[in-house]
Amino acid sequence: MKVAIVNYGMGNLASVRRALEDIGAQAYIADHPAAMYEANRIVLPGVGAFSQGMKSLIDSGWFDALRDVVDRQHKPLLGICLGMQMLASFGEEGGQTRGLGFIPGKVSRLDTLGCELRLPHVGWNDVSFKSHDALLARIPDESDFYFVHSYALVPERPEYVLATTGYGCELAAVVRNRNIFGCQFHPEKSSKAGRQLLRNFLSYIPC
């Protein structure tokens, strides 16, 4: 199983690769969009601001290439943290910015969503499952995952949300639309539950 980790200059690539290699994947860092086409799975990591992340994806040619491999070739894609947020239609961080549009919805700051707790949200939080999905198989409901974020994706349709977490308000923790998945937490830093989620992503069979 070849997994391409998208390198657009804003992700903790080494820890994601190590986590994937630990579970038996042939993971590699894709430094150019062309390197993504030989992969069976795509991972879009991310740390930083939405507007800067999207600018990097567009300037480096990733935007069109991602749409090609996901929409036309139907390769499974997993967005992590900022990578999940950029799956949205648009984000508000750094000014309203167009996203990849894979998960219709918007990305907003937590305090505008009703959260009155300290930002950023950093640490372990339990995740409640809203749907039985292959991505969550063999993971106990209410398992803890590691979060670092001040913004969250608010999907247009509730059926896109596979799991939520509470941080002063209910937030989408795991989302899915067809072969496109996203997790707001960092599975590579989330111990056994995070490794199992990555295993599930690798074993998922596209329709």
Estimate the global geometry from the Cα principal axes. Answer: globular
Order of adjacent strands in the largest pleated sheet? 2-1-3-4-13-12-11-8-9
Rounded radius of gyration (Å) = 15 Å
Element string (H = helix, E = strand): EHEEHHEHEEEEEEEEEH
**Can you count the beta strands?**
13
| Largest β-sheet summary | 9 strands, mixed
Examine the coordinates and then state which fold CATH places here, giving the name of the CATH topology: Rossmann fold
Tally the structural domains: 1
Describe this structure in words.
The structure is a single chain. The protein is of the alpha/beta class. The chain has a single domain (2-203), classed as Class I glutamine amidotransferase (GATase) domain (Rossmann fold), CATH 3.40.50.880. It has five helices and 13 strands. The protein has a nine-stranded mixed β-sheet. A four-stranded mixed β-sheet has the order 6-5-7-10, with helices on one face. β11 and β12 (170-177) form a beta hairpin. The protein is globular. It starts with a strand and ends with a helix. 46% of the residues are buried. The mean pLDDT is 95.
